[in-house]
From TrEMBL:
Organism: Lepisosteus oculatus
Protein name in UniProt: Vacuolar protein sorting-associated protein 54
Record's compositionally biased regions (Low complexity): 1-16, 556-565
Lineage per the UniProt record: Eukaryota, Metazoa, Chordata, Craniata, Vertebrata
Pfam families, sorted: Vps54 (PF07928), Vps54_N (PF10475)
Vacuolar protein sorting-associated protein 54 N-terminal domain mapped to chain residues: 210-357
One of the GO biological process terms: retrograde transport, endosome to Golgi
Length: 980
């Protein structure tokens, strides 16, 4: 928007009335008209009078500097000597001296034009320009000659005239008060004539006067000439001055009207209102002063009230009162000289309360844990405990759980000691004066006495844990209530912030600009209305402190309640502890994360209580087991001990929610020793039975048949002892199992009872399942290997003194082994149901045992076949085909076959008998075929062939005449060699 001096618009006279106006030519259309500044008070009340938009607001802008406050000499502004040409005043007087020509940035869209672009044009026009210049110099025009001559003459004449004036008059520092200047202008030689004024002096004076007059005329003529040259600029300045005078006259009138209106508004509308506001502010200040004095009086009663609360163990109330007082001192009573030491005194008092709470909690824990367990009350002084816990949480004293843990350990030791002392005192056989140590006294007890003491300790520990759980539940409930209170407080704060974001005082916009003592009226309204809104935080703290110090005065209590009811609902939450609402101070309370950790620590403390009880029981158990007493227990006694421990462990697990392993581990170590002794006893017993076994079929008592029947019904346990007077039943020859008859020896019957004892121990003591499984598998392997040594290995000949191992002994041993194989899957299922899935790999022992037993049974069958095979080889090697028929050889064979059948028929089942005789028949056919081939007898239909067929028919008839072998397919055609 920069403009050059040559293109500035110049005013011209457009009429003959002497009024000069600016010409609206095309060069001025690019410039916006100079607008007056906007009103700084756009909503100024007008009162029905025409609004003046060209003047400032006296009310709103009387204390603020505006552009109208500037005062400049008008001629000096119009004749700025810093400007080369006066036409630029048109812009600089309105927009400032900075509105001058500036450098225009080159356009990015136009190419950079250099001198080389015009080189071709200059070359073409250079010759023409030279010719034109020559002609121009030779023949100048008339206008140029006249103009040049006039300008030259005028300039020379003006310069000649001015040169007549002495230089001293044209100096910028010309001053006649300077003696040298005065003497130079008016020489004293013209006025120093002696004897009066001579004609010469008069002539000199007149000459000087005329000379000076001439100088003045020359200067005036030049000035007039210059003025005539710049007449348009002068007329333009005069016109601008007239317009400015019109603006000033209108402004003065607007100011007068506005001041009249302001005076009327002040008299009619403002004086009374401002007086009311002044009185309201005065009353508000008086109320504040009264409340401040009342608050000081209340704070002055803090220390006596705290001491009174401490005397009644109201630690929470005392701490809350101290915190509220500290807050009031820091925010509302800061700087008051009389309270300068109160803050430090309250801090020391708060530290003292911390120590008192910890000592009181320690005393409470000791008295609660060491009181008699027979008391019916679960929690001792519940309200006192809740108050202590809340106070400790409020002060972040979280080590109170460690104090309770230490007291709990001491109480557990005392519980065991008291139980032992009370029990020993009732036993006359133990002299407590001779045997002083409790461990030695326990070892002198019999097992029933010691076992009753153990159950007594278990019962006391259950009551002890119930008491601890009830106490920790109260503590945990307090923590959860505090946590819930914090969450509700935050929720209410968020709801309050969303529902009431702020109060806007909507006042009349024309009144909003009226101020009183530098403040807006709306501020004064707000200050007056604040005491009645009930949301001032200072009033809230004051009312809270008053509530705590109200005491028993009913009037003051009612006043405190009235003042603080609304503030308590919005700014504080409460936790109900023992039926008393305890206010929660958000600045002092723990965070949600810390409260959650405290709750978890309480649960861990309950777990630790269970572990402590188990540890004390372990020490009690180890004191008894030190001399090996527990290893010498009978099965029933150890089972009773194991069941008692298991019941105690389960009850503690139900109470505390976590399984403690120390007592079970101690019992497990004792159970391992018990299992070793248990197994060694039964293994030794089984070995003795086998060494005395004569391998004859034994009678089966009725109780063993009942035992087998119970196993078939799924009850793999030992039966109850036989009641006296029960009807005696006769024993049977066989043991009936699942519809099959098993002839057995006496050792196998006892073996069945032995492995049922193993299964019964597993039922009673689940923790020894794996050990019992390994021991039982070892026992079954021992039975199998020992049977093999005694029967197949003929060890019974030397051990028992048998003359020979008969086929009946072999068949009976095979059937006994088959009975054990029948029960192995049942035993496996019994143990599998009591094992963890990760322990199933140990069941492979039963697979190995089953394979060993089946291999042993197969070896016995092979042994029976081998006996007959050797007989066939011996008899048939002497076979000759000759009369009489049937031959003696075949008679002997049939006789031996009949004896074999007679020996095993009552021992082996029908299917096994048939399979055995099929194998014996195959052996017979093999040896007969070899003998026939040796004596060259073939099935050619000859006499020898006929004789052989007679013997074969005799053999077939005798074999099929035996029981269960009627339908046996002997297939005797295989004895003949096949013709090729």
């Amino acid at each position: 928007m920069a403009s050059s001096h040559s293109s500035s618009p110049v005013p011209h006279s457009s009429s003959s009335d002497g009024v000069f106006k600016k010409e609206r030519d095309s060069s001025a259309k690019h410039y916006k008209l100079v607008r007056s500044l906007p009103d700084v008070c756009p909503k100024e009340p007008t009162g029905g009078v025409r609004s003046v938009c060209d003047g400032p607001s006296v009310v709103a802008d009387q204390h603020r500097w505006t552009v109208y406050n500037s005062k400049v000499n008008l001629p000096a502004a119009l004749n700025d000597p810093r400007l080369a040409k006066r036409e630029s005043d048109f812009f600089t007087k309105t927009w400032g001296l900075d509105f001058v020509e500036t450098e225009v940035m080159p356009s990015f869209y136009l190419p950079n034009i250099t001198k080389e672009h015009f080189a071709s044009y200059l070359q073409e026009t250079t010759q023409r320009e030279k010719i034109h210049e020559k002609c121009k110099n030779i023949c100048p025009t008339k206008d140029e000659l006249g103009a040049v001559s006039n300008l030259t003459n005028n300039h020379d004449k003006s310069r000649t005239d001015l040169e007549q004036v002495p230089k001293i008059f044209l100096k910028p520092d010309f001053a006649l008060d300077d003696p040298s200047t005065f003497n130079a202008v008016l020489p004293w030689s013209h006025f120093s004539g002696a004897g009066g004024k001579g004609s010469r002096d008069v002539a000199s004076s007149r000459l000087l006067q005329e000379k000076l007059s001439h100088y003045l005329d020359v200067v005036e003529v030049n000035i007039a000439h210059q003025i005539s040259l710049r007449s348009e600029a002068f007329f333009h300045a005069m016109t601008s001055q007239h317009e400015l005078q019109d603006y000033l006259r209108k402004t003065s009138q607007a100011v007068k009207v506005l001041r009249e209106k302001t005076a009327q508004i002040d008299k009619v509308m403002c004086e009374g209102s401002l007086h009311i506001l002044r009185q309201a502010l005065t009353r508000n200040n008086c109320v504040k002063l009264y409340n401040k004095m009342k608050l000081m009086a209340t704070v002055h009663q803090t220390q006596p009230t705290v001491q009174l609360l401490l005397s009644t163990s109201e630690f929470v109330g005392a701490l809350e009162l101290i915190a509220t007082t500290q807050e009031v001192l820091q925010q509302e009573l800061q700087g008051i000289h009389s309270f300068r030491h109160l803050g430090s005194q309250l801090c020391e008092l708060e530290k003292l309360i911390d120590k008192m709470m910890i000592a009181d909690f320690t005393t409470y824990a000791r008295s609660d844990l060491n009181r008699p367990l027979e008391d019916e009350g679960q929690v001792l002084e519940k309200d006192r405990l809740e108050s202590l816990v809340f106070g400790l949480l409020r002060q972040r004293k979280l080590d109170f759980l460690e104090i309770y843990s230490e007291e709990m350990i001491i109480a557990a030791k005392n519980t065991v000691k008291q139980c032992v002392v009370s029990t020993v005192s009732q036993i006359e056989e133990i002299d407590t004066e001779v045997v002083v140590k409790l461990a030695d006294q326990m070892r002198l007890m019999t097992f029933p006495q010691w076992f009753e003491l153990l159950k007594y300790i278990f019962a006391n520990f259950i009551l002890f844990l119930k008491r601890i759980k009830a106490t920790l539940s109260v503590i945990r409930n307090v923590v959860l209530k505090v946590l819930d209170g914090n969450q509700k407080s935050r929720l209410s704060d968020c709801t309050l912030a969303e529902g009431n974001p702020g109060k806007n005082f909507s006042k009349d916009p024309e009144v909003a600009y009226l101020t009183y003592e530098g403040r807006f009226i709306s501020d004064a309204f707000a200050e007056v209305e604040q005491p009645s809104t009930g949301v001032d935080t200072k009033n809230q703290r004051t009312s809270c402190l008053r509530n705590e110090l109200c005491g028993s005065d009913s009037a003051s209590e009612q006043e405190c309640t009235t003042e603080s009811s609304s503030s308590r609902e919005k700014t504080s939450s409460s936790v109900t502890a023992g039926g008393v609402e305890i206010p929660v101070n958000e600045d002092m309370m723990l965070t949600d994360l810390e409260l959650g950790r405290v709750a978890n620590n309480i649960q861990e403390l309950l777990y630790n209580a269970s572990d402590v009880c188990h540890d004390r029981c372990v020490k009690f158990l180890m004191a008894r087991a030190k001399d090996g007493s527990l290893e010498k227990l009978s099965s029933s006694e150890f089972v009773a001990l194991s069941q008692a421990v298991e019941r105690f462990v389960q009850e503690t697990e139900e109470l505390c929610g976590r399984r403690s392993m120390s007592l079970r581990g101690a019992l497990q170590s004792q159970a391992n020793r018990f299992v070793n002794r248990f197994h060694e006893e039964r293994k030794t017993k089984l070995s003795l039975l086998l060494d005395n076994e004569r391998w004859k079929q034994a009678e089966v008592p009725a109780e063993f048949q009942d035992l087998v029947n119970s196993i078939a019904d799924g009850r793999i346990t030992l039966p109850d002892k036989k009641q006296t007077g029960a009807e005696e039943r006769k024993p049977s020859d066989y043991l009936s199992v699942d519809g099959q008859k098993y002839p057995v020896v006496g050792t196998v019957l006892l073996l069945i009872r032995i492995f049922l004892e193993y299964c019964q121990c597993v039922n009673d003591i689940p923790s020894i399942t794996t050990d019992m499984l390994i021991r039982l598998s070892d026992l079954l392997k021992h039975f199998n290997s020992r049977c093999c040594q005694l029967v197949l290995g003929a060890g019974a000949l030397q051990v028992v003194g048998l003359k020979t191992i008969t086929t009946k002994n072999l068949a009976l041993a095979s059937r006994c082994l088959q009975l054990i194989v029948h029960y192995i899957p049942i035993i496996r299922a019994h143990f599998e149901a009591r094992l963890q899935p990760k322990q199933y790999s140990i069941l492979r022992h039963f697979d190995h045992i089953t394979k060993d037993y089946n291999d042993h049974i197969a070896e016995i069958s092979a042994k029976l076949v081998a006996i007959m095979d050797s007989l066939f080889e011996k008899v048939l090697s002497k076979y000759e085909v000759k009369a009489p028929m049937p031959s003696t050889c075949f008679r002997n064979v049939c006789k031996q076959m009949a004896k074999m059948h007679e020996a095993i028929y009552d021992l082996l089942p029908e299917e096994q008998t048939q399979m055995l005789f099929l194998r014996i028949n195959a052996s017979f056919k093999l040896h007969l075929k070899r003998q026939l081939a040796r004596i060259n007898v073939v099935n050619d239909g000859g006499p020898q062939h006929g004789l052989v067929m007679v013997d074969i028919a005799f053999y077939t008839g005798n074999v099929q005449a035996l029981k269960t072998l009627e339908n046996l397919d002997l297939n005797m055609a295989e004895i003949w060699e096949q013709k090729r």
